[in-house]
Structure formats: structure tokens, C-alpha cells
Amino acid sequence: MTWHLAHCGAVMSFPELFPPDIGLSITAVTVTPDVIAFAALTTAATASCPCCAQSSTRVHSRYARTAADLPWQGRRVILRVTARRFRCATAGCKRTIFCERVPTLAPHARTTTRLTDAHRLIGFALGGEAGSRLGARLALPTSPDTLLRRVKSAPLPAHPTPRVLGVDDFAFRKGVNYGTILIDLERRCVVDLLPDRTAEALGAWFRQHPGAQVVSRDRASAYAQAVTTAAPTAIQVADRFHLLMNVREVAERALARHTTAVRNALRTDEVATAPVEVPPPAPAVECLLTPRQQVATGRREHRRQRYEDARRLHDQGQSIRAIARALRISRGMLINYLRTGHVADWRPGRTAPSQLDVHRAYIDRRVGEGCCNARELHRELGARGYTGGYDQVRRAIRRRTDRDGRSRARGPIPIRSEIPTARRLSFEVMRRPDQRKEQAAGWVDRLRTAGGAVQATIELAERFGALVRERRADGLGEWLSRADASGLAEFGGLARSIRQDEAAVRAGLSEAWSNGPVEGRVNRLKLIKRSMYGRAGFALLKARVLNTG
Ligand SMILES: [Zn+2]
For residues 22 and 50, what is the distance between their CA atoms, to the nearest angstrom? Predict the structure, then answer.
């Protein structure tokens, strides 16, 4: 339906709907289920020439402009503005005719400035694809490309140079290329993103933005170098989180090198309570293995073979990259192999957790009593709440019986406790002791009294965690001597590298500043990066991160 307001003698500016300074008077309103269209005239008496700025009253002609505006009652709003061309009044001006500026409409724009702003905000928050979907639902439809263009064209917010700066890296693609995120630790906002993590890039930034007094950073030498050369007066603080992670990685490597000792330490109580003899696997037993066990054995053999190949090629002097490509494994895995010095195999012969685990004692008893009928046992277990399949039960019986169907066990089969990986253990060791769960606390307690290298690893790692948490820079010297004296190559190396950066590490153990708030910002950045489906150019990523955080 259309109302021609002029016919009712009511050409008006709708002061409630359109503010008077919008400079438009509405002549007609057309309403359809999806769209409200306003026909409008510009009201200004004069217009200024864009060339000589002289105002003119001489109208040359009229032309139509159409632009989308913010929606109303869930309907899209369209302005159809009849605008005017004016003659320039200045003799000799090179613009004889010019178009008037329509309020709220940028030259050539198809959307009002306020709709453009709304699109930009959606783009900042959600990016192109998701933003476009939300826009359609909110009657603000636009294409993903347009949203991204709006985001890119936004001016970057200006920040005063931070007094306390947090520096951290982030991955564009993990292991491939990295950027740098700079945070104002006092105001807790992102100040800038750099497209790489080199000393040159950060140094250039410091020269353009002098004035940082404290710089909190990880222990990567590139950042240290940049601060030392480009901001030499700034106090450098080794970030506490990164310090803890450095120690954790070292602890993981040390534990991984002493797999057997770790396993023995964690298994002691099991042996004490369940003295059941597990027959040693002999080649002849192979045929007794279930298909799944045979597959597992095969894989284990494959891993061992691959490990030995890697070792051999490495001894021949081949590069990490070449070996990784030849063996088709990741470089990370290869480095792990060479570092640990044995096949990464923590739980040989472990069985996957199964629904039957809770019924294990019952199955043991029934098989011990001579029940080898899988169908019967499946029925009984069903009555006890088991909802799994029949095959699982059949396999469980087969594991407990020999070829003639006689029970193999001379007592309950021990429940193997889960043996955690070196990585998991290293995280548990670095955790605040009162925040360890009961099981993890048990692991750490046992490793702490295991003696030898394992005990030394746990003690060094826990001691360092305490230094960091209690901000005890005065304990660092003693810790370094202990690390040297431990005879553990991993900790010896760490002690050496800490000594090279000792002032910053001491500052990290005493200053209040830490990159804690940066981690949150890096996570937010990752979220934005993922939501852009890999089409995030650096400029776009930067625009979104700086404008939202
Ligand atoms: Zn002019």
C-alpha cells in the first residue's frame, strides 16, 4: 500500500521517524510485507560546489538515488531520494554542474551511513559468512564480501603507546607461520598485530612507538633482541606462564626419557595387590591373540620399524626435513623420536576402555564357575544393566578361557590402572598442588619418591612452580645450582638458557606484570581467525582484532 503524503497536503519530515537535520522530506510511503520504501526530497535551499565551495541556488536537473537504511519492525527500509544537480555560480570554475550531497548518504553509497556502521559492527563481531547470515535474519541483508570490505575500510583505533607492553606470538598456521600480538597490559587491550615474529618487525614497532617502560615477553630470543636494541631502557620481564611452560616441556622430555622408571613407579601398588602372573608373550601365543590384539601388535611393530629407520637415517646425517618426508611422519613426531631415544610406546598391550569394565568382576566369577556360554552371560549382564553388544561379551569370555574352553585365570584378572603419558604427567607436576585431582596427586606423590632421575625431575619442576607462584626471585640461584647438580641433561640445558636471560627471568619472578591477560587476547584472536575460514588476510584479521579487543 502506498500513501502519497503530498496528495493529503501533508508533505512532512516525520520529526519522530527522521530527525529534522536529516534534510529530507518524505513524500510517499510504500509498505509491502518485507519492505518499507520512503520517497523523499532533499530540503536544503542551496548546495555547495565541491570544487570551489561556493553555494548555489540554481537547480540544473534532478536524479534518483536509492539507498537501504536501518530496518523498521523487521522490514527492510529503502529511501528513494530525488536529489538535485546544481550549476556552479562561480565564473570559470571547472565544475559547471555538480550533484548535491544527500545527508546520511556518502557519495555513490547504496546504504545510509548508519546502515554501513551497523554492517561494520556485525563484521567486526562475526566476520563475513556468519555476519551475512545474521544480517539476513535482522533485515540487514548484505553479502559476506561487503561485510569484509566494511571491516577492512574501518579506521584502526588509535592507542596511546603503552607503558607496560605484553608481547606474544600466535600462529596463522601452527608450525608454519606466526605473527606477534602486542597488548597494553595496563589497559588490557590489543594495541597492534605484526605479520611475523622476527626481531626486525618488533624492533621497527618500538622505533615507531617509543616509550614502553616494561616489556613482558616469552623467552624467545627474537623478542629479547628486539627490546634490547630498539627499547634499551625498558625493563624486560620473562612471562611467568611461558617460564612454567618451558619447565613443563623440559620435565616432559626428562620423563619420556625414563619411561621404564616412571612405569615402574606408577605400577608398584598394582603389583602388590594383584600378584597374578601374566604369561610372557611368546611368538607361539600370537595365534591366540584376538584380531584386535593382532592389529595392535602389528602397529606396534610398524612403529618400532619406523623408529629404527628414523634413527638410522639420522645417524647417516640426513636432515630432519628429509627424514620426515621419507618416512611420511611429521617433523614434530620425528624430533620426539630422536629426543626420547626409544619408541613412543607407553602402554603396550593396553585394552581400550569398554562398557564391560564395570562388570569385570562378575564376568571373572561366572567364567571361573565354568560359564562359557556367551549368550547366557550376555543375558545375565543385560539384567545387570549392560547395554552393549553380544560380540563384546563373547570376546571377553574368549580372553578368559583357553582353547578347550577352560577358565584361564587363577584369580581375578587385575584391572590395569591407566598409565599417563609423559606429557600428561608434566602438566600435572606443574599444576598447583592443591588443584591436582586425587588420581594425579597420587601419580606425582609416587614419582616424587621414585628415586633417581624421575624423582629429581619432579622435585626440580615442583620447586620451580613454587618459585613462580610465590614470586621468589631470591630462590632462583639455588634452583639453578640444583638443576646443574641433578645430572639431567634437560634441566642442565634449561639452566644454561635461563642464565643467558637471567635478568628478565628474575624480573618475571618478582615484577607484578605478566602476560596472563594476553593469553585471553590470543584466544580471542584464534577464535576470530577460525571464524574467518582461512580467508583472513592479515589486514582483515588485524582490523577485527583491534576493533573488538
Ligand atoms: Zn564551483
Answer: 20
